[in-house]
């Protein structure tokens, strides 16, 4: 029995299966790049959240105001330390949205990379829950944590839209400033930019055709 024919190389010089596996290789490279970015983002969120937790641990409990009930019309009393911690928590929420959320292009990505960014989210939730306990004396619900992330997403989106609008306005202003302007004396002698306009002639009115009325 004669041996099977050897596979023919394609035009690019690779094997016959190169065109089949090239898209798979590109998808794998993209997945690995996303994973590496999420590892770094999760680590940064973890570090920021731990710093916030350490700040909360250093607060003097005796100096804290009585916790609020969290009900309608019952807001947490002002406190410099807790207010600063709340601002830090809001900044971390924006960090979660911009560094982790933007890397998850679809729900499938969120599932595939869940173990990659989960440590950062866990530390973030711990910091938010600890802050909420110092504020209200109770546990922060999952809905409240999600609401904080939704608010951060809305803030980031609004800031991006404002920056884009400012960029567009600046470009339009620069274009208007660069446009040539007519000479100051153009209105007096009918010239513009040093060029005299041709004389205007008035044609006699065209008589109406016969039988028009």
From TrEMBL:
Biased composition (Low complexity): 169-200
Region (Disordered) location: 169-213
Annotated InterPro entries: Translin_fam, Translin_N, Translin_sf
SUPFAM superfamilies attached to this UniProt entry: Translin
Pfam family membership, one: Translin
Coiled-coil regions, chain positions: none
GO molecular function, one term: sequence-specific DNA binding
Ranges of compositional bias, category Pro residues: 201-213
PANTHER family: TRANSLIN AND TRANSLIN ASSOCIATED PROTEIN X
Identification of the protein by name: Translin
